[in-house]
Amino acid sequence: MTVSVGLDIGVRQVRAVALRLGRGAPVVTGHAALSRFTDDGAERPLSTVVAELAATLAISRPAAVASSELDVLARFLHLAPLPPSRLQRILRLELSPEESAEPPTIDAVRLASEGDDLCFLGLVAETAGVRLLQTELKRAGVRPQTVSWGPIALAAAAAHVELADGQLAMVVDIGAAGTDVALIGAGRLLACRRLAYGGDQFTQALVDGGLTQAEAERAKAAAPIMPDAGDPVPALELPSAPASAPALEGEPELTLMLDDEAPPIRAPGVTTVAMGSMALGPQMTKAAEGLYGQLATTLAFFKAQLKRNQLAPNRVLLCGGGGGLRGLDGYLARRFQCPVERWDPCAGYGGDLPAEPWRWARALGLALAAQPESPRVDLRPDADLAREAWRRRLIWPWIAAA
Q1: Which domain holds residue 139?
Q2: What is the pTM of this model?
Q3: N or C: lower Cβ tally within 10 Å for the chain?
Q4: Both 223 and 273 in a single domain?
Q5: What distance in Å separates the CA atoms of residue 275 and residue 331, rounded to the nearest whole number?
Q6: 388 domain-assigned
């Protein structure tokens, strides 16, 4: 049995979880989380936070790390079946920019697809951004085996979700500044992406309603904010539906657009709005409708990229910090017309389980990257990969011949 560690670097918090992998269900041997901000709101250096985390949990060599601050461009690619070496060359040609001062880091993961063509999700990240992340981690004494991407880690965590034949599950991890989405079917990844829409939009909706930033953050975890007694319920101005695929976080100019315009998203009914206002409050219902619009447009984008006639989830699983928002699951269930639940990614696991498991989905997925069957990518620079290949494989024939 081996112990694998996943390190999830979010905008607000850093989380690490250790899993013992082997026969049977994984066992959580330890977990820890620290805020990236002091009590007065000042941001702390990432290296300091990770070093403090390493003092409570052995994370010096995590299986994978993912950072929400690392800008990653995702592209869907359809290729004819070819030998692996030719496929790799074609993928690199397709993903490499024509002009670049420094070659980017590139990797791809194969997606479950219909038809004869192979479908890949190609990922491109700036080498400078990856180097900056590695430098911060090195200062804390941490050297990750792979640099992954949040949506891929989310897909790895959801691979064990039980689904009937032909059913699909959409896993939604709502972070502070963005939301990761993964579409799963029969344990296989169909599509994933990151949206620039997260818990901050819910906070801003409350701030627009008259609360301070601190009051809004506390209110999100408390009862819904309702108008004063006797005051008329304000009319809810819902956000307009986006006409195209939502922007990738941090890279709006690189957004992939649908081949055809996305179908208009139907407006919520009167009963849905009224129930949302009672469960979430009027301000947060507007933010919840904005999230639904982003998710519905993302499904239309996936449908176009995967070249499918129908693509509707049978279940929606909420996780991340925003997944604990009371009333959000009920509102989205009415909008999607399917079961929506707060997901426990630790279900069936043993050991030291976290108290709020929905917050740990990405960290668990990163720890599961050590399993061969898990979807995974490695966005480390080519020089690092070549050096590791030399150390692990190529040097041994030289030693044997000496």
Answers
A1: 2-71+126-158+347-401
A2: 0.87
A3: C
A4: yes
A5: 8
A6: yes
